[in-house]
């Protein structure tokens, strides 16, 4: 039983540290813009996307951004 918990814990750590590619799709001032984040953890990509949105909102308070899996072509 201890082995099962050990394997599950290791598997959980592996999944929690998986990195992927994301893009932050934004609309600001009627223009679509994207930021690409390669080899990021999802939480880190979301934080970066939120920071990018904050910068865009300086020029357009109505700017919006959404983080999406995978990189845009």
Order of helices and strands: HEEHE
Helical content, roughly? 40-55%
Number of strands: 3
- Ends: how far apart? 47 Å
Number of helices: 2
Global geometry? elongated
Major sheet size, sense and barrel closure:
3 strands, antiparallel
Order of strands, main sheet, comes to 2-1-3
Unreliable residue stretches: 8-15
Average pLDDT confidence is 84
Annotate the secondary structure layout.
Blueprint (H helix, E strand, L loop, with lengths): L1 H15 L3 E9 L2 E10 L1 H18 L4 E6 L4
Antiparallel strand pairs: 1-2, 1-3
Feature tags:
single chain, 73 residues, alpha+beta, three-stranded antiparallel beta sheet, 3 strands, 45% helix
Overview of the structural elements:
The protein has a 3-stranded antiparallel beta sheet with strand order 2-1-3, covered by helices on one side. The protein has helices at 2-16, 42-59, and strands spanning 20-28, 31-40, 64-69. A hairpin with a 2-residue loop joins strand 1 (20-28) and strand 2 (31-40). Mean pLDDT is 84; it is low at 8-15. The chain is α+β, with helices and mostly antiparallel strands.
């Amino acid at each position: 039983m201890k082995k099962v918990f050990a394997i599950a814990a290791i598997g959980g750590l592996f999944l929690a540290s998986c990195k992927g590619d994301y893009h932050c799709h934004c609309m600001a001032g009627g223009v679509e813009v994207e930021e690409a984040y390669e080899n990021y953890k999802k939480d880190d990509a979301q934080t970066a996307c939120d920071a990018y949105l904050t910068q865009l909102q300086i020029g357009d308070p109505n700017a919006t951004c959404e983080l999406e899996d995978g990189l845009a072509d």
